[in-house]
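A quick aside before the break. I want you to see a complete sequence-to-structure record at least once, exactly as it would be stored in a machine-readable document. Don't worry about memorizing anything.
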Amino acid sequence: MGWFSKIYTVVISFLGFIICHGCALSISLYDVECVSEHVLHDGDTVSGNFVVIDYDIFWNSDHPGIDFSVTSPGGSLVYSLKGTSGDKFQFKAALHGIYKFCFQNPASTPETVSFYIHVGHIPNEHDLAKDEHLDPVNVKIAELREALESIIIEQKYLKARDTRHRHTNESTRKRVVLYTILEYVLFAATSISQVVYIRRLFSKSFAYNRV
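That is the input. The structure line, written in tokens, reads:
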């Protein structure tokens, strides 16, 4: 019965990991937008990533990027990044409570931000002593769950960056096509104006010869 209980615990833990392993969302950023996340235990690891999907770095090299900051339940600054188009983050939550994740867009152009966050908890010796139903097997399960979660975070970050690169390539292709069309239009207009000018010049020369 003991082994069955342990196997049941492992299965339930992994099902819980598959069903709910983090929070992913997309934010339309015009000025300042904040997202709150509740950290249940002191010392939990908060990790995640964000990528500005619409950040067209090739055509807007002077774009200032966005600012990212994390504040603790007490209001102190825990983590911050300035002028970036995306990055990964990780920190230890010293206190449990509501943490606020804020994005600021200093540019006038709205941006779309892909944001993923995960709060990980691995039981320690204090938890084992306090909870008699918690054994080392659960601790190993939690460690394995967090290792898998780190892989998922990396995959989501790479996927978001790939989406941004596709948007940039598509924007580049459209601009190249537009510039090519404008170039041909200007070339045609220049050629037509030259033909008209030459015809008028010859018409005037012919009129002078007749006089």
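Two observations worth writing down. Residues 1-21 have pLDDT under 50 and may be disordered. The two ends are 121 Å apart (CA to CA). We'll return to this after the break.
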